[in-house]
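Lab notebook, bench 4. We co-purified these components, and the gel suggests they stay together. Before we commit to crystallization screens, I want a quick structural picture of the whole thing.
Request: model the full complex, all chains together.
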Amino acid sequence: MNQRRSVFIITCAAFGFAFLYIPILSMVVFSFNASKLVTVWDAANSPTLKWYRSLLNNEEILDAAWISLKVAVINASGSVILGTLAGFGLSRFTNFRGRFTLNAMATAPLVMPEVITGLSLLLLFVALEQVIGWPAGRGITTMTLSHMTFSMAYVTVVVQSRLATFDTALEEAAMDLGAKPLKVFFLITLPIIFPAILSGWLLAFTLSWDDLVISSFTSGPGSSTLPMVVFSKVRLGVSPEINVLATLTIGFVTLIIVGVSFWIARSNRSERAT
Amino acid sequence: MRRAPWSQRFGLNGRGLVVLLPYLWLLLFFVVPFVIVLKISFADIDLAIPPYTSLFQWDEKNVLSIKLNFNNYVFLFTNELYFKALLNSLKVALISTLFCLLIGYPMAYGIARAKPATRNLLLLLVILPFWTSLLLRVYAWIGLLKANGVINNILMALGLIHEPLAMLYTPFAMYVGIVYSYLPFLILPLYANLEKMDWQLLEAAEDLGCRPWQAFYKITLPLSRNGILAGSMLVFIPAVGEFVIPALLGGPNALMIGRILWDEFFSNRAWPVASAVAILLLLLLVPFMMWYQSIQARESAGAK
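Here is the predicted assembly.
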């Protein structure tokens, strides 16, 4: 079947991958460039780690990264719970009142333009503060709640598609043997969908860590996240420190993704073997 | 003998509890906010905190009067800028989607037809940029496209041009940024669709004398229709409201509706006008979202 792969397809695909990776590689290369001009290679003094040092001493960026980390971890953990419940409900309960609405509400945030989501959440928080006095002002709490709303949609999709691929026979067998639904969920369903839950957690973390628009709407004074600081710097042009930040991000993401994919591939294989 | 399925076993209470939490969450944080946006789009701008007037007023005789102010919408419809921005956003999103298809289709096809080991590696290569910060990847293009950027430096060193090309802060840069950022969103659903295809159909067609291009046009393309549509919607809908890419790459003249909304809100503090823009944008996009949902439903029904 594979001898039919045509030269045309391979050329197109190679061009596509080059398009995806050249910008990323250029940031990695120029992160070692000594010149302040960033894209003009200073051959005499490069490669250098001086911008790495300067990034690690940049308090503004480090503070923002710390806020982003807090928001991302709480968001990921919360949206995994919400998304798993929604994904489980949608895939295992075929008809309940409100299924259509839940499905619509859970998939709409995937395509909703961020400016709309951001504005609407901000107006909600302002209205809530006027009516019930909570949340008092905006900051980490309001940002986390907002991130959870769109992250849980992604987790729902991931969990739902994992649940769709394994059949209910295992769960039904356990119930036939007298296990209570809750016990079945924790002993059978949860271990099987665990890779999906892990991917969902990582996805939710990344979405929150990267988010600029929704954070800008829902954050308050003194709670600038990393993307907000990066955006204000990048608006003024290129900066060597941002290249370093990008390189570190890419390295970290690559490690995690490759590690997790290997782990998932292995657990899939052992699952098939048993 | 098979016993009753999950849904009946759980009983109504257990089932209800599982879905109640996400249901209420989305109702409060996703649906109610839109009602508030709609409400504020009918308010008037006010020098107060928050900067809009209230729609509801109780007078001395306990009469509730509701004042709906349609001026924000009249303003949007009479002011050419908003209409132009909306049209331009649709145009930019449409052209970007077409380019994503042109680049993404061969990639998804190539991945789907690769050997399983290569396939996983290629898939990983598509997913990786998707996980790396969008902001940083858009930023990378500033370094490539600017006057003394990588592309200009290479072209000048090769002697192909003598003066740097003005690429950054042009519509071209914006298109490149959007296509680049949204490409994985198109490839992944399309790949998922193509992966399920029965390639023997192609072989049969060719055995019967179809040329490869004909076979592609008559078999692969129609069969991957749902993948194409789903991927295109995932690019088109968010691209219409895109803010970051036009703001960083498009220059001051890039008229995109997402940017106008941002500026109305953050620069002009015109919350009611921003809300009216959001409502119009939403009304425009809802049909596409519903379309996307029906494609998804068809896709998962076909998978079973």
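The domain at 58-273 of chain A is CATH 1.10.3720.10 (MetI-like fold). Worth comparing against the SEC data before the next meeting. The CA atoms of residues 27 and 243 of chain A lie 5 Å apart.
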